[in-house]
């Protein structure tokens, strides 16, 4: 009965279409980033620019990727630090 | 009227490219347009049987691009409409039997005689896909309301854009209203949200598609076919008419119809 009510009010959280939509959203974030290496490269370059203002980083060892977990997608960046810069004004 | 080369594509197989090509081609011919349908699914010829023209094939698309015959000799005239023709795929060769360059020349040649050149694309993103899109002005992407199909459509839209076809339109095929209503199928909005391309039409899941394919008579010829009606609307939309997208509710039910009116009035 509760189930029926939930359905009537459109609150059925496990309706299979919602699951489908959510899975699609996640898989496409990943697909689209992989399909477009230029996107990741542009992001990488901008990241470097910003981070270099604060620290010396190892550009060779820098890794940026988009990875899917169970129900989320994460931007994963591994950026080895060589040293910190002094705070401005020091 | 300037002729248009439209490729019907999907990425995923079996979602209704050939069905769409046959029905759209026929519907445009019903509107008095000169239409040629190209089957580029080399090795897996299908459009001829869907159109009921399989017994008339002498030459095919590979014969044409290799210069074994003239285009006119290979074109099969439809039995029902004078302005409607089919150029069948070869059955014995593979997808590498045609090059993108040859396809481009072929479609350009056909522009001289036809208003619409509809290219039925094979499934996949390999050589056959590259051939099929190489002469096209625009693409029609067919997808069903399923995760795998929409995902592949997204990939295809990206590849089309990379190839300079950035004005693709979407046909959602096999929509089941009952399932949408009970929350077990993605609806039109869900799909458009995800793919962010323009909608060209919505075709319901419909048994008349199977019956018409059995007979070799496209569903648009059947007045009472709901899928046929959807394709007739797509054709009118392609010709610039403003036809509302009708999600093809089951209007046989009076209560439903009334509910719909109320919804519209809101
Ligand atoms: N709206 C519909 N309602 C019911 N059946 C449909 C509908 N659209 C397509 N079908 C059926 O689905 C099957 C696949 O359709 P079709 O051959 O047009 O797909 P396709 O994308 O061309 O496939 P392929 O990738 O193999 O070329 C056919 O059996 C067809 O009759
Ligand atoms: Mg096909």
From TrEMBL, chain A:
Signal peptide: none annotated. Pfam families: MinE (PF03776). It comes from the Bacteria. Keywords: Cell cycle, Cell division. SUPFAM superfamilies: Cell division protein MinE topological specificity domain (SSF55229). InterPro entries: MinE, MinE_sf. One of its GO terms (biological process) is cell division. Prevents the cell division inhibition by proteins MinC and MinD at internal division sites while permitting inhibition at polar sites. This ensures cell division at the proper site by restricting the formation of a division septum at the midpoint of the long axis of the cell. Belongs to the MinE family. This is Cell division topological specificity factor. It comes from Syntrophomonas zehnderi OL-4.
UniProtKB/TrEMBL annotation, chain B:
SUPFAM superfamilies: P-loop containing nucleoside triphosphate hydrolases. One of its GO terms (cellular component) is cytosol. Gene3D superfamilies: P-loop containing nucleotide triphosphate hydrolases. Residues 6-218 form the CobQ/CobB/MinD/ParA nucleotide binding domain. GO terms for biological process: division septum assembly; negative regulation of cell division. ATP binds at residues 12-19. GO terms for molecular function: ATP binding; ATP hydrolysis activity. Keywords: ATP-binding, Cell cycle, Cell division, Nucleotide-binding, Septation. InterPro entries: CobQ/CobB/MinD/ParA_Nub-bd_dom, MinD, MinD_FleN, P-loop_NTPase, ParA/MinD_ATPase. Belongs to the ParA family. MinD subfamily. ATPase required for the correct placement of the division site. Cell division inhibitors MinC and MinD act in concert to form an inhibitor capable of blocking formation of the polar Z ring septums. Rapidly oscillates between the poles of the cell to destabilize FtsZ filaments that have formed before they mature into polar Z rings. This is Septum site-determining protein MinD. It comes from Syntrophomonas zehnderi OL-4.
């Amino acid at each position: 009965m509760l189930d029926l009510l939930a359905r009537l009010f459109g609150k059925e959280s496990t309706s299979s279409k919602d699951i489908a939509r959510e899975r699609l959203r996640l898989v496409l974030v990943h697909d689209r980033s992989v399909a477009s290496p230029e996107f990741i490269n542009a992001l990488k370059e901008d990241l470097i620019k910003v981070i270099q203002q604060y620290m010396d980083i190892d550009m060779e060892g820098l890794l940026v990727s988009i990875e899917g977990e169970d129900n989320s997608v994460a931007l994963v960046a591994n950026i080895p630090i060589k040293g910190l810069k002094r705070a401005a004004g020091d | 009227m300037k002729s248009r080369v439209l490729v019907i594509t999907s990425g995923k197989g079996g979602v209704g490219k050939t069905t769409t090509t046959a029905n759209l081609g026929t519907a445009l011919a019903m509107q008095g347009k000169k239409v040629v349908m190209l089957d580029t699914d080399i090795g897996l010829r299908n459009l001829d049987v869907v159109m009921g023209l399989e017994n008339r094939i002498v030459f095919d698309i590979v014969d044409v691009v290799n210069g074994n015959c003239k285009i006119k000799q290979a074109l099969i005239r439809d039995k029902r409409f004078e302005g409607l023709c089919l150029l069948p795929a070869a059955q014995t060769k593979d997808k590498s039997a045609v090059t993108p360059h040859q396809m481009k020349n072929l479609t350009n040649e056909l522009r001289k005689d036809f208003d619409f050149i509809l290219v039925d694309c094979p499934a996949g993103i390999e050589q056959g896909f590259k051939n099929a899109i190489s002469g096209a002005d625009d693409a029609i992407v067919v997808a069903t309301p399923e995760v795998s199909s929409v995902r592949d459509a997204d990939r295809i839209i990206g590849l089309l854009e990379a190839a300079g076809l950035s004005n693709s339109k979407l046909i959602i095929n096999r929509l089941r209203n009952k399932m949408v209503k009970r929350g077990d199928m993605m609806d039109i909005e869900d799909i458009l949200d995800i793919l962010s391309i323009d909608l060209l039409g919505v075709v319901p899941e419909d048994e008349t598609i199977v019956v018409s394919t059995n007979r070799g008579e496209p569903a648009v010829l059947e007045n009472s076919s709901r899928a046929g009606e959807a394709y007739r609307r797509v054709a009118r939309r392609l010709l610039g008419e403003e036809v509302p997208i009708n999600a093809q509710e089951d209007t046989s039910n009076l209560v439903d119809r009334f509910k719909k009116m109320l919804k519209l009035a809101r």
